[in-house]
Design brief:
This is Cytochrome C554. The chain is mainly α. Helix content is 45%, strand content 0%. The termini are far apart.
Length: 176
Amino acid sequence: MAKKSLILTIGLLFIFCGLSVAEGEHKYIGVKKCSMCHQSDAKGNQYKQWLSTAHAKAYERLGSPEAKETAEKAGVSGNPQEVGQCLKCHITAYGADGSLLDSGFKKEDGVQCETCHGAGSDYMAMSVMQDRDKAIAAGLIMPTEEVCVKCHNEESPNFKGFNFDEYYPKIAHPRP
């Protein structure tokens, strides 16, 4: 009997610990929610800046004849818009559990805010974003070269080198 109680107690402990970890994970909210606060010119219009980059069109470009040709040459079989080897760098949250994707999240948005800044559910509130330390504690990532080279690396069939200091200013979107 004591053995059964011990097993039951340990089992319940694992269940409740697992639930608390799952509840602590940040959800991906999607670029539309980010744009609600980040599209005013007075605040730097980060959304407009993102729209002008290749990141915004990363998923769409996987549907092009060029992407299909590149995939074929790289030995990737199947539609690039459906193959993990391509999606891991052409959409945000590739491989994330569906429970971590908010209803407004769309893979078609490509490489959006949360790819570089982290899932936004817990830092999106204005009261959190106004305090950088609070936002970082809530999951905000301030991108570094290490974030970029997760995709901009030799595993990419189109890789031609990556110079962070040269490329980052092209996508930078600071608040004025």
